[in-house]
Amino acid sequence: MDELGHTGNTLETSFGERFIDDYLGPKMSSDPVTAIVELIANSWDAGARKVIIEWPNNSVEKFSITDDGHGMTEEQFSRRWTQLNYNRRNDQGVNAEIPEDNNIKNTRRAYGRNGKGRFSAFCFGKKSYFIETLRDGQYSCFQVKLSSGNQPFSYEKIASPILKKVKNAKHGTSVYVEELKHIGLTEERVRSEIGLRFLTDPDFIVELNGKKVEFNDIDSQKVTDLFFKFDDTEVLIKAIQTERSDKTSQQHGVAWHANNRLIGECNWHGLRKDNILDGRFAYAKQYTFIVDASVIADEIKADWSGFNDTSYVLDFYDIAKKTIVEHLNSLTSVKRKLTSDRLRENNRETLNKTGLIGVSRWNAFIEQVQVTCPKISESELEALASILANLEASTFQYSLIHRLNECSTNDLDSLNMLLNDWNVSSAKAVLDEIKARLTLIQSIREKVHKPNTLEVQELQPLFKKGLWIFGPEFESIEFSSNEGMTKVIKKLCKVDEQGSKNRPDFVVLPDSSVGLYGRYEYDDDGFENGIKKVVIVELKKPSIPLGEEEKGQCWKYAKELFDKGAILPDAKVTCYLLGEIIQPQESGTDTKKDGQVQIVPLIFDTVLKRAESRLLNLHKHVKKAPFLDQSEIQSFLNENTVQLNLQSTLGI
Fold this sequence. Notes:
Elements: E1 6-7, E2 10-11, H1 19-24, H2 26-30, H3 32-45, E3 50-54, E4 63-67, H4 74-81, H5 88-92, E5 128-135, E6 138-146, E7 153-157, E8 172-177, H6 187-198, E9 205-208, E10 211-212, E11 223-230, E12 233-241, E13 253-258, E14 261-267, E15 287-292, H7 311-331, H8 333-346, H9 348-351, H10 355-372, H11 378-393, H12 399-405, H13 409-421, H14 424-448, H15 455-464, E16 480-481, H16 483-493, E17 506-509, E18 512-522, E19 528-540, H17 548-563, E20 572-579, E21 590-592, E22 597-603, H18 604-614, H19 618-621, H20 630-640
Parallel strand pairs: 3-9, 13-15, 19-20, 20-22
Antiparallel strand pairs: 1-2, 3-4, 4-8, 5-6, 5-8, 6-7, 9-10, 11-12, 12-15, 13-14, 16-18, 17-18, 18-19, 21-22
Helix pairs in contact: 8-10, 10-11, 14-15, 14-18, 14-20
């Protein structure tokens, strides 16, 4: 290898002097609180019962942390300590290995994941630290040094020191430094920080400068005593708050104690298969609650892994959880109020439309969302506040929420994708038109084959709304019934006015009804010139087959409109002759006046199939849509046809 690090044609990786800071992060390598917590966590993972710490003060300038955990053989040290990003869980499992003679009954969940915590000793030593470890009669001591170039760290085995740190005769590990950095953290402060995190399990004892860390060492401002009554007994909960959130929620949560012993593990898991607090929430990595459960000590399982599943225990748990949750909510009440005030001001214009009850309901909802969904982001909360304000001000208010609640996850995903492509207004416009057309088809289907259906009162109004059925050229909204044309046909047919006065836009004949619809032509100035295109819809009674005579009648209508000047001379007229059956050889279209007039006989089933085809057979895909149920169809018919109880007034 040359001085540039070349080996033949291969370049090797090298490490700069700043590697340790980037690898560990700024806190672990320079913050003594984070560093000592990491080293104590290593002792916890080693199954230690007791941890002894030497901390620099006015009388001694030393740092060491020694435990009675399982220790390591030289081979284990080589594999575990020298491997960067060592995967502790793959190699040793998720739980701590506990030496039998430490007499710890509870299972411990290990902290370690990526093997970085051991290097936090560099926070206390200048460029190096020492580790001595004992296991299975093998004693080893190594000096770990910061390096650069091809190796970020170097490990040098050294002779056993005269004054060994490990006091347990069978197992243990000690990490210490000889050249101490200036730490700048007082003994009093470090006692408090350790107590905040490691006093939940009485089987884990931390001793600092010869004195056990106890509750009294914790800064009194960080501990709050909570009380609740259960079975005529006052129960104490100690609420402990660290100054800042830790990396994980481990050693935080609820610790159930009885007779100065931990029951189960300290975590946020509830006794009803619930969570007292979401472990991802910042407070979950900052708060610990120690509950004195002595009053239900008779319900503790024999191995102290938890409680018996009894109503007595669950009643105790419910009150304890309520007390804890209320305390946590009280801590965030000021922040929640400020957030609510800001969101209310942002939505003031909309909320002014809702009245006092609406504003009160909105306030309560926003407050509850902040309590029950602590992970909601600021942008999500702002969007939700705006939506809720709009719902309060809307006509139907929260019915949309009920609709969304009925949606499956796939439905919600589909709705989200729909809104990516459409805005609500355009989607509603399209869907309303589809709804109207599908409902119209279904309504016509309901009527055409019933012998007692009345053409003029029930069918003609439906076809009046459905000229689009006959083709795209009739889509224009400009087509409308024309009373002038209707009068011409009535005179031609000598229709009794009494018979059709309630429907002046239809011609009522003994065997049929006729509807006439026209579209005007306009000149360059926008004035009407006359009717340019006409649609005649004649509905024949079911007993009458469609044949040559019926076609001839349609031609008479068209001819009369031309003769009387009711339409323009060059107008196009299309006559649709609709009935139950068509006579043989009469199914084709007839044309008159050089093609200006077309006469098209169709049976109702064909008309409906054409309509469904024009809607791309959507009826088959949405036949379970709410607007196609029987009650909705009847409602549509009631709105668009003459009510049956009014038929007696029509004189037919």
